[in-house]
Amino acid sequence: MNTLHVFVDESGDLGFSEAATKYFVVAYIECEAPVRLRTELRRLLKRLHQKKRYSISRNELKFSRMDDYCRKSVLAKIVECNASLGAVVLEKARVKAKLRKDPSVLYNWCVVHNIMLSLLPQIAAGNKIQITFDKSLPMWRINEFNSYVTNKASYLLYETGNSLPSNCISLNHIASEKEFCLQAADAVAGAYFQKCEKHNEDYVKIIEHKVGFFKYLWK
Question: Is the pTM above the cut of 0.90?
Fold first, then answer.
């Protein structure tokens, strides 16, 4: 039995005002051994600081705050590591009115439903899944969210005629500056956000051959 590590982050927002983004992107990275990815990105951050290509005051690789050189350097380093990527793109203009009124329901659908769908084969095969999210929710929402994740996995497996093994899914919520693999997921989300929101495909072209799961909502 293997443990698959999954790191999830997003780009854009779930607002619907005129100032809101047109797209909301969720991205994730799957790997069995995240140590190498952490090590490579830690070294890259140090190198970018030394070369004065990235502000020394920033202790995490934040895609939205980077120039083109830094963004491409991060994505190229991700591609070198043994990891599979996934992305879910939500075109907000297509979101139904009732979902616009409850961002938490929309968030759960985008993040949990689609990611769990992609992980079902791994769970059904008996593997353990450890999923790490960027810590952005209050504690009461984290507990509610964690229950939703487990229930969703159980339901989706039930639909395929399988049951959810006990303790096969563990969930972590960690500040992104403490986890380089979350920063990698942020970069993948940023690449797809640039393609959809800014019509810049340069970043996606670097990583798209590593993308094992892609969903566009709703096309």
Answer: yes
